[in-house]
Amino acid sequence: MKQKQWSIYLSGEIHSDWREQIVSGCGEKQLPVAFSGPVTNHDASDMVGVNILGAESQNFWRDRKGAAINAIRTSALIGAADIVVVRFGPKYKQWNAAFDAGYAAALGKPLVILHDEEHDHALKEVDAAANATTRSPMQVVEILDYVIKG
Fold it and tell me: CB–CB of 62/50 below 8 Å?
């Protein structure tokens, strides 16, 4: 019997190496996983709309064009994911990560949240919708290992 390859969508902050830690940890455990996520090059993500569709004189419309194109990727990949992992980092408010978590929850996707203790209160509703709330990338890896291998 062929082993299932699990699709894991990694959403959230882009200023640390948490994604690389999860990918590396899953590789060490030889988990049958494929990872996807948003475009993590901030400038490429922000400017995709005007780079493809043309310049805008107002930032609102520049951002709107980019967000709409990025939403094509996000909705398709979250929709195809077996598990969604969302990281909330300490430095910035990640409204897009909260939206991704809510979208995944609305689709009934298994949801793992990763954030530091300092965000416990602010993210209490997100945490309540999650199947697990973790503090480190290695805890995410251990959850994936358990879920996949049993």
Answer: yes
